Amino acid sequence: MNLKNTDIIVGPLITEKSTDLKEKERLLCFKVHRNSNKISIKKAVEDLFKTQVEWVRVMNFKGKQKRYGRYTGTRPNWKKAYVKLKKDAKMIEYFEVV
Question: pLDDT tens, 35-92?
Fold first, then answer.
């Protein structure tokens, strides 16, 4: 399955942990497409944000089971990626992009 760079990165994950990592360790956190891999994520970040990536780490999350009255359903599974930028690379501001 060939994904475009704009399809790979779903959006930034903005939490207390991710903003702390961004300031201290130059780590960015993204919600990414479930079929993407480390190589495609690295290429997408470098192409979209015009910066250099040192490494990428990914994690898969299972969707939580939710209830609405007597009906049960499941939220979709999703994938998170931590992207480490090189020391001399340009830092990305989330709100410039969003």
Answer: 999 999 999 999 999 999 999 999 999 999 999 999 999 999 999 999 999 998 888 8
pTM comes to 0.86
**27, 50 in Cβ contact below 8 A?**
no
Distance in angstroms between the alpha carbons of the first and the last residue of the chain: 26
The CATH class that applies to domain 5-87 reads alpha beta
List the chain domain ranges.
5-87
Distance, in Å, from the CA atom of 95 to the CA atom of 75, rounded to the nearest integer, reads: 27
Q: Are 59 and 78 contacting, i.e. CB atoms less than 8 angstroms apart?
A: no
Q: How far is 60 from 72, CA to CA, in rounded Å? A: 22
